[in-house]
């Protein structure tokens, strides 16, 4: 082995040799000293010693005793033949040491902050610790406190979640609702953590604390006991802090504990917090606050004349309804609880909100083109209030989404919803009239949502079926604009709801057939593969080679035009296919709605048969069978929707 250099360890705090003071020079008579060559070679500078002679290495060979073993050769050295030295095992890599240091620094910060959050600490210390915790969880926040500059690391929030510190912090702040300043700081910490796209990492205790902060009332008696100057300082720090994160829906002028806690709750969904969130939110009373918030926002819709306040109310209701929609999907317990809460307050508020949105969408329509009306007038398009129309559309979709969950396979929910004044008529307008006030790409969604709500309402409720059959309404807006076709599509004024639905079905079924035939023609007219004209084979020197020909400008333009034509044909085929799919789905939903109306009612069967061509239900059953086959390919087999379609098909085939 090579000669090892031995390092004489020195104390780390010993100054460098350059910094040591020079010893006093002694004046001695200079006597020339002559060193031998051997002494000069072995002269030592006091730091390194001369390398020791190489150890005596013994080579050993182990002969295998079994056929499957191999010869093993080893080099060994006896201890007597080598100097003593220290062997350090398991030395960490440089990157491991750096990572360990960073983690230790994060851990020290958390332990320091948690020690300041304990209940035995003074209130000011606890509030300061919470504020610093909020600052540490930011990606970049160096303008508030100098400590934030040191601790504002992008990896801090990830470290906080990875080590399960979030629940520990909120557990330490369990009594924060008893102090106004501390509760405000805790709500701000929750809000900042909820800004991430990652999971909130909440547990039941943290959610319970959030609900308790939501219930706080800012009464005057407690405010008098606090130092207003200190409170304003904390609010200003939180306000500047919230300006650095995504705060689209946060009112920075209304920094209160309840407002921050509500915004945090509305940003949560069962997808982010886990399936347990659905049940715990109901048991801890969180659903009560969200429903009350919906009622508050809906009440403002009828009184707010200012567009900004109107948009704020629409956004508030829409966000609350999105959370309710998330927690009621496939959860019968939450559905029943919301139906019964305060005598169906959510259903009442949703019905009122949907009616308000129907009125507002006509005033703030976002239709991209003029719509033909019976009196040959066009619908005005207001670009100034475009954002209001967008808020109305989002709110309408959220309302119908919640009502769909509450009425799906639920006779009680269907009956309670159908009892609301004008709700069935509003749902019919969402199918027939409201789409004309929406952009072209949004019309299909609102129409399908309205048809789905009507199907849920009439499937298990005889009262709702009777109400819908006896209702009068207008024809579909696109039927009125049709210049060609059957004369029955040009009926103006009020007609029976069943007749309007049958006309919608027939029109969508014809449009689907037309789109299918046009797509087939485009496929048949696809250009055939042409021979390669970029060159030709030529025989030169007894070899055959491909010689490319130079293209003229006209040839290149022609090739480019052909490529553009092919791309255009492909886009046309895709557009026809998309239109065909939309028409098929609308026709299938309408046929399913008419089939639900016919169930257990021979009178309704006769009424629907009068408006069908030749009184034949086969056109409806064929469309439903195609739709059922499509669902079997795309959905799980055995769902309630497939069972309902199969039941309607079987009933119509025996009519």
Automatic annotation (TrEMBL):
TM annotation in the entry: 127-148
GO biological process, one term: cell division
Keyword Thylakoid found: no
Coiled coil regions in record: none
Basic and acidic residues bias: start-end ranges: 550-561
Region of interest (Disordered), residue spans: 1-26, 527-567
Role this protein plays: Regulator of sister chromatid cohesion in mitosis which negatively regulates cohesin association with chromatin. Involved in both sister chromatid cohesion during interphase and sister-chromatid resolution during early stages of mitosis. Couples DNA replication to sister chromatid cohesion. Cohesion ensures that chromosome partitioning is accurate in both meiotic and mitotic cells and plays an important role in DNA repair.
Quaternary structure note: Interacts with the cohesin complex throughout the cell cycle; interacts with both chromatin-bound and soluble pools of the complex. Interacts with RAD21; the interaction is direct. Interacts with PDS5A; the interaction is direct, cohesin-dependent and competitive with CDCA5/SORORIN. Interacts (via FGF motifs) with PDS5B; the interaction is direct. Interacts with a SMC1 protein (SMC1A or SMC1B) and SMC3.
Name of the protein this chain belongs to: Wings apart-like protein homolog
